[in-house]
Amino acid sequence: MTRPSLFELENHSDFIQRHIGPTVKQQEEMARILGYDNLDALIDDTVPAAIRRHTPMDLPPAQTEQAVIARLRALASQNVVNKSYIGTGYSNTFVPAVIQRNVLENPGWYTAYTPYQPEISQGRLEALLSFQQMIIDLTGMDMANASMLDESTAAAEAMTLLHRMNKKNRSNVFIVADDCHPQTISVVKTRAEVLGIEIVVGCPEKLVGDTEAFGVLLQYPGTYGHLEDISPLIERAHAAQTLVTVAADIMSLLLVKSPGELGADVVVGNTQRFGVPMGFGGPHAAFFATRDAYKRSIPGRIIGVSIDRRGNQALRMAMQTREQHIRREKATSNICTAQALLAIMAAFYAMYHGPEGLRRIAVRIHRLASIFATGMKEIGLPAQQATYFDTLTFEVGEQQSSIIERALAQGINLRIIDTDRLGVTLDETTTAADVETLWQVFNDGNLPDVSALDAAIDDTSSIPAGLLRDMDYLQHPLFNDYHSETEMLRYMRYLEDKDIALNRAMIPLGSCTMKLNATTEMLPVTWPEFAGLHPFAPVDQTKGYQALLAELDHMLLEATGYDAISMQPNAGSQGEYAGLLAIMRYHQSRGDHQRKICLIPSSAHGTNPASAALAGMKVVIVDCDNQGNVDMDDLRLKAERHTEDLACIMVTYPSTHGVFEESIIELCAVVHEHGGQVYVDGANLNALVGIAAPGKFGADVSHLNLHKTFCIPHGGGGPGMGPIGVGAHLQPFLPSHPVSPVPGVDADNDVVSAAPYGSASILPISWAYIALMGGDGLEQASKVAILSANYIAHRLKSHYPILYTGNSGNVAHECIIDIRPIKEASGVSEEDIAKRLIDFGFHAPTMSFPVAGTLMIEPTESESLYELDRFCDALIAIRQEIDAVQAGKIDAQDNPLANAPHTLEDVAATAWEHSYSRELAAYPVASLRRYKYWPPVNRVDNVFGDRNLFCACPAIDSYREDG
Ligand SMILES: *Cc1c(COP(=O)(O)O)cnc(C)c1O
């Protein structure tokens, strides 16, 4: 071996091999087991030659973790963290340290998956249920979901819900109060236009009642700060059969009457200021609360209370069957990934402070606002609002530029509303000294005195009479038992221990790519220079972000082969929507207004048809053949039939069936021939990066789930990011933003998220991943992802039928095992297998998607050969149990599969009345003696939960007795 130079020693990076599970030697062994000389031979035989890239990605070589952190530090230092008074839906907050370290920075929370398997998700389900309870209490509504992507999209979803629900008023008009946040007005307008809903923006006092409208959106308090009793307005609306959505500020609801009390039909808002950093736009959890009558139409995920097979209380996601996978283009919404981790943080913030603590925070904010406003009046600059909570607007005329200059000199950002108005929003972090500084900024001369004003003013005079609220909220013990840090710490640990996240075991979810979320990648998320920025901060303060965004743009363009990127969409579903809008705008720009048909293969993910419907397109399904591939004859037939009105096809590649379809290039050609565009759903990019690029093999646009391929953790159901890559011809139609225009696109373009770059503060994660891996590392990761999936398929194929393979007999980066014939022969279902895997300490694979009665397994490149084997051994052991059932050696009804999962209580109970042993129940393989996960509940009854829909925290006793 040659002696390495000092330079080589210093720049040697272990990261690629830390990220990729199997060692290089194991990779070669695995390839040989599969019958190939080496890994590249497997890839050559699996990926169609026609789509392979000919040039490697133009990315810097892999850097060490230390170098990447140093580079991120340098980028971060280019951001200026001014004190923000910009408001507009985003406020400074103190993230309680105990929550930051033990939730936001804790892989036990952030690496968990969406709680589709309730038995291993009771911890996060309980936290999310508390979030719903908090929202129900503060909004005064009957029920709430958990959660929405941002306030603006929540308002847009409210509009479509009211449009569906208002049977008494079929008008097509939706009124939007002109004092809603500007980003919300834009997002709602975009959403409405393509659905043929007419938006009338104006003063609600003038419009409501006189304008025929199915619904109205009010902001409470208004974006400029005005706070008023909206109940007379709501009454007037209801008298005209106009339904009412109120976008409310969560902090103000601690002091003023809830929109529910005032008569609202839907209440939306954001919980960011409950202990979640602004993060230059996100991520944070928005909320959606409504009346009981609309509960079955509510968008997003709802956590509900059910029972397990012993009759004990157990939580689960309610009405899952109602989600997009079943409803397809008739789904109520396209939301899939939401903001679970951030909803959980907000709920913990409320628990930690409790009702009194929260109220004290709100009272202090309001007191400071009153003192500030009174002082401003003394200065000779009275606020435009007589009644307000925390936000005030000042008409400053010609003084504007000198005030802004003085503010910036003090490190302060004010809200610049127009050429002569400035806005100020106070928050939890504002101090008396800050108020004095603000006075100085507005006035060079004499200053009022905080203490004197504090003694003199009357808090209630700035809140309208009768609008003050009694403390009727958060009385549940959950919000009252955890005010000491010790209790909070233990409660969070208690919940965490109930769940399986990636820090316990492999989560082999097909389609969702649960790979390593490396700690180094996560570090920058909570740095103040990334976490502390307001999304509308002046651009010269966000240079670090701009540089990082530009570099990430380049990286993702290299990976996908496209020409331009939009970072605005907050999840894959939102990327789909933004991409379809770009396609539609492109057609419209060419005069092709009739092009509205969206072809979707029957195997597509449910968000595809749901997004198409949301974009105002009409879905036409294309069949799959019995190999699971898109039926090219049917495709040609339908493309031809719709040659006049074809907008696009949405196709996932490699397919949701886990196969590299040979026909993809021809498919793109056929669609293009008939004037359509090709949308490639990028959820499966983990099989492509470095190997093939959708932008090069014929696609026009793709979303990238950065929380799948690019290492943003799933957070138990969000956050996520769904940027879209597009060809140059679609670039002019990418989303813009009304407050902070996106460089390179028309400021009047569509707007799909509240913030210009979506959940910007998690983008450093993907940037870091790419920098750590380099081009070669990324390509190696894709290859090993394919290798590991084929290795699993190989080990399992004599025990379970592999449903689909490509021409070479190989799968792509995931494989589907078909349980239908097994169920037919033995009575054991895919659900029994999924639940039995819990006894082995595993999270189940994806169940019954994309094919009912199957399990889809995606190992990713990050799982070691040890873990792959452990998982295969578990499934093979389960197959032997199935055989025993089938052979009549174990009881058909009373067997370890039907009764799975087994709890500690099951096996420790005095009575054991089963036909098999306690050992077999709990320790089916010896390795479990070293480390055993105990599910906290038995199998959860889905049907009971949906029939008896209950989505708030259950009574006190049910919590206290389980200690
Ligand atoms: C995950 C996924 C989506 C939806 O993405 P979200 O980020 O959850 O909104 C769409 N299509 C496919 C194939 C997926 O796997």
TrEMBL record:
Enzyme Commission no: 1.4.4.2
Taxonomic source organism: Pseudohalioglobus lutimaris
Keywords: Oxidoreductase, Pyridoxal phosphate
GO molecular function, one term: pyridoxal phosphate binding
Subunit text: The glycine cleavage system is composed of four proteins: P, T, L and H.
Record protein name field: Glycine dehydrogenase (decarboxylating)
Cofactor(s) this protein cannot do without: pyridoxal 5'-phosphate
Boundaries of every Glycine dehydrogenase C-terminal domain copy: 781-902
Modified residues (N6-(pyridoxal phosphate)lysine): K708
Lineage top rank: taxon: Bacteria
UniProt keyword Secreted present: no
Summary of the function given for this chain in its UniProt record: The glycine cleavage system catalyzes the degradation of glycine. The P protein binds the alpha-amino group of glycine through its pyridoxal phosphate cofactor; CO(2) is released and the remaining methylamine moiety is then transferred to the lipoamide cofactor of the H protein.
Originating gene: gcvP
